[in-house]
Design brief:
homodimer; alpha+beta; OB fold (Dihydrolipoamide Acetyltransferase, E2P); BirA Bifunctional Protein, domain 2; Gyrase A, domain 2; 8-stranded mixed sheet; 16 helices; 22 strands; globular
Amino acid sequence: MLRTHTCGELTIKNIGQPVTLCGWLARSRDLGGMTFIDLRDRYGITQLMFNMDTHKELCEQARKLGREFVLKTTGKVSERSNKNSKMPTGDIEIIVEKLEVLNESKTPPFTIEDESDGGDDLRMKYRYLDLRRTPVRNNLLQRHKVAQAVREYFDANGFADVETPFLIKSTPEGARDFVVPSRLSPGEFYALPQSPQTFKQLLMVSGFDRYYQIVRCFRDEDLRADRQPEFTQIDCEMSFVEQEDVMNMFEGMVKHVFKKVRGLELPAFKRMTYTDAMKYYGVDKPDLRFEMKIVELKNLSPSGGGKGEDVVSGKNFKVYDDAELIGGICAKGCAEYTRKQLDELTDWVKRPQIGAGGLGYIKFNADGTLKSSFDKFFDEASLKKIAEKFSAKPGDLILILAGAEERTRKALGALRLEMGSKLGLRDKNKFECLWVMDFPLFEWNEEEKRWFAMHHPFTSWKKEDEGLLNTNPGAVRANAYDVVINGVELSSGSIRIHNRSQQEKMFKLLGLTPEEANYKFGFILNAFEYGAPPHGGIAFGFDRFCSMVINNEDYIRDYIAFPKNNSGRDIMLDSPSDIDAKQKKELGLK
Amino acid sequence: MLRTHTCGELTIKNIGQPVTLCGWLARSRDLGGMTFIDLRDRYGITQLMFNMDTHKELCEQARKLGREFVLKTTGKVSERSNKNSKMPTGDIEIIVEKLEVLNESKTPPFTIEDESDGGDDLRMKYRYLDLRRTPVRNNLLQRHKVAQAVREYFDANGFADVETPFLIKSTPEGARDFVVPSRLSPGEFYALPQSPQTFKQLLMVSGFDRYYQIVRCFRDEDLRADRQPEFTQIDCEMSFVEQEDVMNMFEGMVKHVFKKVRGLELPAFKRMTYTDAMKYYGVDKPDLRFEMKIVELKNLSPSGGGKGEDVVSGKNFKVYDDAELIGGICAKGCAEYTRKQLDELTDWVKRPQIGAGGLGYIKFNADGTLKSSFDKFFDEASLKKIAEKFSAKPGDLILILAGAEERTRKALGALRLEMGSKLGLRDKNKFECLWVMDFPLFEWNEEEKRWFAMHHPFTSWKKEDEGLLNTNPGAVRANAYDVVINGVELSSGSIRIHNRSQQEKMFKLLGLTPEEANYKFGFILNAFEYGAPPHGGIAFGFDRFCSMVINNEDYIRDYIAFPKNNSGRDIMLDSPSDIDAKQKKELGLK
């Protein structure tokens, strides 16, 4: 080794010891008689001291070194006169006797400090320098700890880590596949897996019983902010289980990881049906760190059972009379919101991402009076009636949205989160874990005019809903369950179909002809005929899981060593890029 | 859970317990009054007993069940009258009281037994059934153990597991890249990594200090037997190290794995230079389980220093007079080989894979006389002289090949292995671990008429050979080292270049223009200017490592869950395959 110690380990116990350290020049200070250098490596920072009186030449050499030079230095550990209690090595410094520059460095394009002055693009281009910053590097070191804890749990519970192939067959059903042209079979393609779904099911057919893998997956989507074309998944499957078994097992995994990585003991996860999540939180992944449930004032949609008359209709307020769904939330203590604040909120809900037509409000003033944005149509008694539905108290502000069901729910859900953020209710130190259950089996795709599987085509349906499969597919519930933490969907699982005829029925409902089903999925249909056990599983988005566990943050890019930007480009590599004409020719591409 | 226990855990201690088991019907025997079923799962086999007297209906139901049916059964654990000491559950059986068929099975296309009657193609097509066979499933379960041991070692030694990207840039230099057309950047491509080489080096530039990953890699090669287009690599890198440090660290890893998985304490690895390996074993990955070194009788090639005259030339035997290299091996106790045996060996060395022109021999008979295939040209005294060079004893057989250096060495190496096998010297229970060192930096590619990097273009050269870079590149030695076990190359590592100008020099020697080097590798050339530390590492072929550790076998396909065949096809999936016209259009492919 070029060094005897790292820059993070020397303390008062080492005083007097001759040591050799290697690292990067993080900072240097020239105090005339003495020069100090902070030497940094992955493990910490150690102060080097150069004395002008005793080692003039060395000191002059040290003064010429620039930031990020790579140094090898030998000297004696000595007690500092100015101790720094914030650093593990803050009690000591190295009195340098020998110095070697292992490599030079140009001036970095941004500062390598905890808070960098580099913009996103610059930091992406020089990702290897951005990774040198302690917070970013720590994210990745912590990510390793999360992976360790995950493996520890699965290993202890008898799960086998089995590697599944990356060069598979294109069977898009939902998102697009990335494909890989084959040179040995011209005109044919492999596909990169969107998940190892069918393989883990085959492993169950093979009798592996319990399987897990931390595995890369690929999805060629039109990229939204904070989506990556390649992402990592914790993929799991179990045989001879029911939904309850799977949920218990993976709830245990999440708890284990929080315990090991954060030292937190999570309580038992809450549980909620998809229907309730949509009704009360306007979203299938509610943030339960705060209450502020959505209250429906009118619901003409099928989910409301067509209940027309309510506290809001029939006041000659056309917007409300015409609306399919009217709902609101009660923001505690916000009655004092100014005109300006309310206008800003109105603009916010009208943005295309939210899509509401406008924002109604009722201020429940501290003096007990009520003031609304629709005073023209509603008398105080009517407003009171509404306020009662929210259990509003003096000082509260009721915010109301109206319109078509789906969009209004979504908007209410978003408004709820926005108000939660404004009111500081989304506590960074709080974790509220939730199972969302009983998802619909299908969702209607208006563009393609057909049903799509809400989870994926291998999800089984609830036995009691089987009769609806042909008559009302939209009402069939799946044996599907998601883990949601603080409003972030972390995983998605289900009990699978394990029977050929049921799987064929599912493909048929998804609009596949028997020939198509056979061409794409013949292997798994066949496998189901040779003794497939009942099985189910789950997949966690590992990148997002890491960002949640490590920093309670829903932003994955800082937890990936070499991420792509929002256009799917690797700016550092400058990829994708053109390839050689020879390569293209060999692949039969022009 | 559908079961209370697995099929591998019930013993005499459980007698009298009511239990529920799930599994596959492995075998059934109808003895008239009683029917027995062997129920199999991943954990073992448990015998089920159906009594015609007490449970007639159940017994009749059981008799109708076919092989590989999936069953759920409830009953009481009972002591067997006929115990089977070979099975952990052999002392007990289940007196069945309830039986449920969870799924039926068609008759499998081959028997699900330890020795299958299925051919390769059939087993590949029904891989999920092949994996149900205990030896194959065990290989994969053991593979998980190897991975666990590898991670355990690296975790304990402070290595960070950092995931590197799969959608990267095409920079072929040696093997071909698989490429992935980009839909968002039409006409452009990502490439799949042949290894994370440049990324792990960037992680060293970032200060990660110690990195490892068990990671999939891709190489679009013309497939030879037992090569896979995708394979798994244990990838490692360390900073501030010298060759010796890297070798010690990874030798430690191999020892740890053998200890944990096989319970074996390996001794310190032997070490050998590439030159010696080629000279004495005719190959850069010698099998040291047996001696039988190659002895050179004549060497006119540069490696022999042009030493022309020797014990074999000048006897008017034109083949030997003209040969560049003449060498042989001494097969102990084989002097009694018959004419037929020698003819077979001669045919064997003449096969195109070996490529020798013929095989010379000297029998050192038990009575002390010598008999050779070239008696016409050599008198007994000359033969004796040759025999002495081999330290041959009465009863030994000397086998001699002659020809051009490279081919003859290779043929001698192959012949040595063949004789080792014939003589039973390649012991399945023996592990001989070796570091091969001081590889040449370059090898000449006759087809492209240029130098190629023997390891890869990031390998550094020995400082003392630097003067030869421009004058005699073929003689420059690299700071490169391979782990070889029993003649199988398991890993390949090197100390890397960490300096821009040296890396540029390397690219130039490989025939890249500065523009090409910059286009393909600009990111790493740039990175080297911002304080790159000295670093080095290694990569192990994980599939082969598993096959060696688990069964001392050099055949990877049985250690991969879903392998491809020798044409790179997945027979089960029938992939690669055609893709939708819509997909092609979106990707700008016709």
